[in-house]
Amino acid sequence: MKRILLVLAAVLCVSTAVPAVERPIVNIPPSWRQSNWPGREGMGSCVHATMISLMRWQGRDKLAIFWKSKYDSGEYADRLAERLNREGVRYAYVTDGDVKFLEWAVKTRRGCGITVMGGAHMVALVHLDSEWAAILDNNSVSQFIWIPRNELIAEWKFSMGWAVAPVYSPIAPAPAYRRYK
Amino acid sequence: MRKFVLSLLCLCGLFALYAPCVASVCDTQEQVIVLPQDGGKWYISIVGDNSTTHIRVLRWFRTHRPLFKLMRQVHYWEIQIDSDLYRTRYASNVKGLPTIRLQKPDGTVVYEAAGNKIPATPDKLNSKIRDAVMNYDLAHQALPWRRDMERRCSPNKPCPQPTPEPKPQPQPTPTPAPDDGSAPQFDEEPAPVSEGMPVAAIVGIIAACALLGAGAGLVVQWKRTYSL
């Protein structure tokens, strides 16, 4: 009898209290967002800035600091893979515009870097659901940018379809919903 | 002999030069080919300030077999209060130190204990976490039933009144796959092995005796029936 009452009480609690899912799913706090910076080769460091933000999100502070101290300027898929291999960083990437990779990255709360603007820039994909996508642009880290899902995917595929993500454990979700602006 | 030793030394030197190159080629593949499908994995956070209790709890998760097994099934995080992670994500919501928190991927806190509410032994902690997960699972198993009931009931077709017969108990949660959001599995410390005959042997002996007895009875009956 006690067990039945307990279950009924739990049912009431669950049915009335809908847990708030963090939004965006990869809710990188402001202090962890790496802004773009000019590199030694005279180009922006958007790829590295994106990777640094994601490394911090996955609890790899020391790796993020190291990466920032060593790598900057423009980057492309093969050379980034070679550098990640050399430094022993676990990562995954695609260059064929496979949307499943983006869905995996967001579903597992890791996030990923994606190319935009015809391949000239990389941003972090921090949310992807059936309707919306959200990105963190390292040129403007003060807020997330929300875009219709289909538009974002079309932009990404037009931009060579390169996506890359560190593969470590993401930090725990917030126990209470908080939105960063 | 001298020539042999010199040749050997040269070979060793060549190998020493070449081996690091081989090693570097072999060890540089860090690309993850098979993406970990762990989107449903739960999270455990242990937040603390290196107090005696904090260190004790951390040790439990490394040495107590059921807790260690639990730790291996989740994203496990140890957070120190002097870290940026603590300041950014935990300082505003922990109720005391240390804190043990078990969450689902959507953030739902299934179990949390802080300060002197933390159980005194690892067995008790494991039991508390297990009970919390079980209660959470039971509530969510019942919820679809309730929703279906509400959908079927209407003013013209009132819901049936509870009957005096006991309601069927929810079935135990089946063994889940680790990445579908199901609860982690729990383990108990193995019970001490009792001395004496194992259960299977006892059952076997009883069955054998039963067969033997039945056989003997059949033989006796046969003789009685068909004896001249």
- Helical percent range of chain B? 40-55%
Given the C-alpha coordinates, what overall shape of chain B results?
flat
How far is it from the N-terminal to the C-terminal residue of chain A, by CA? 48 Å
Radius of gyration of chain A: 18 Å
The number of distinct helices of chain B, counting runs of at least 4 residues, comes to 6
Q: Which blocks of ≥5 consecutive residues of chain A have pLDDT under 50?
A: 14-19, 177-181
Residue ranges of chain B: pLDDT <50 for 5 or more in a row?
A: 18-27, 172-178, 190-195
Query: How does the helix and strand content of chain B classify structurally?
Result: alpha+beta
In the sheet with the most strands of chain B, the strands line up as: 2-1-3-4
H-E string of chain B: HEHHEHEEHH
Q: Could you say which overall geometry of chain A the principal axes of the C-alpha atoms support? A: globular
Distance between the termini of chain B: 100 Å
Strand content of chain B: 5-15%
Helical proportion of chain A, percent range: 25-40%
**Total helical elements of chain A:** 6
Largest sheet of chain B: 4 strands, mixed
Mean pLDDT of chain A: 90
What's the total count of β strands of chain A? Answer: 6
Strand content of chain A: 15-25%
- Total count of strands of chain B: 4
Structure in words:
The complex is a heterodimer of chains A (181) and B (228). Chain A has helices at residues 2-16, 46-57, 61-70, 77-86, 99-107, 149-158; strands spanning 91-94, 112-116, 121-128, 132-136, 145-148, 163-166. Chain A has 181 residues and is of the alpha+beta class. In chain A, helix 2 packs antiparallel against helix 3. The longest helix of chain A has 15 residues, at 2-16. Chain A is globular and about 70 Å long. Chain A starts with a helix and ends in a 15-residue tail after the last strand. The model of chain A is unreliable at 14-19 and 177-181 (pLDDT under 50). Chain B is α+β, with helices and mostly antiparallel strands and 228 residues long. In chain B, helix 2 crosses helix 3 (65-73). Chain B starts with a helix and ends with a helix. The chains are: A alpha+beta (181), B alpha+beta (228). Chain A binds chain B through residues 4, 6-8, 10-11, 13-15, 19-22, 29, 31-32, 59, 61, 81, 84-86, 88-93, 101, 104, 107-109, 167, 169-177, and chain B through 27-33, 35-39, 43, 45, 75-77, 83-85, 88-89, 93, 101, 103-109, 112, 135-136, 138-140, 142-143, 146, 167, 170.
